[in-house]
Amino acid sequence: MSRNKVLLSNGNEIEANLISVLPTLSAPEIARKAGLTDESGFISVEHPTFRSTKFRNIFAIGDSAKGMIPAKTGRAAMISAENAAATIIKELGGKTLPYYTQGVICMMHAGDYSGMLIFDVNKYVKKIDFRWGLIYKYLKKLYSAMLISSAFNVPYHMALPYYN
C-alpha cells in the first residue's frame, strides 16, 4: 500500500483519500476451541435473547454473536448484552424487561461539521434519519463523554423495542 492507495488481494490498486481498515471478525479463539462456534466462526444465537443455539446456558454478545448487525458497533454489543441480561433476569428472578433491536446510530465528525445517522427497524417501525451540521460536532463530544464517564451504563440507547 502506498500513500493514498490501497492494494487489494487481487493486485488491483484503488486511490483513496480516506482509508478505514476493518479486520476480519470472528468469535475469540477460546470460543472456537470450546466448540461454541459454527462454520461461520461465530456463536449461533437466538434473537432477541442472544442465547446460544447449541448450549442453553451460554449467551454470546457483541462480536462473538452470529447475526449481529454488520457494523459490529459498541452500541450493538451493549444492546445484545442488555437483551441477554433481560433473559437471565426473567428466568432467575421472574422480572420481565424489554428487548431492543440492534439498529445503527453513528455519530460522525469531519472537521467543522458532524452528522448523525440513525437506522433502526422492527416489525412495526422503520426509523431512518440522517442529520448534518455544526451542532453535531458538539453532540458527538457530549455523547462520547457521557459514554466514557458512565462506563457505557446508559439507560437510553435510542434503540427501538424488539417485537416478536
Secondary-structure map with pairings?
Elements: E1 5-7, E2 13-15, H1 29-33, H2 74-93, E3 104-110, E4 113-121, E5 126-133, H3 135-149
Antiparallel strand pairs: 1-2, 3-4, 4-5
* Individual helix count: 3
Strand content: 15-25%
> What is the β-strand count?
5
Assembly form of the protein: single chain
Largest beta-sheet details: 3 strands, antiparallel
In one word, what is the shape? globular
User: What would you call the structural class?
Assistant: alpha+beta
Arrangement of strands in the largest sheet:
3-4-5
Q: Helicity range of the residues?
A: 10-25%
How many whole angstroms does the radius of gyration measure?
Answer: 19 Å
Provide mean pLDDT, rounded: 83
Instruction: Encode the helix/strand succession as letters.
Output: EEHHEEEH
Distance between the termini: 47 Å
Poorly predicted residue ranges: none
Short description:
This protein has 164 residues and is α+β, with helices and mostly antiparallel strands. The protein is built from 3 helices and 5 strands.
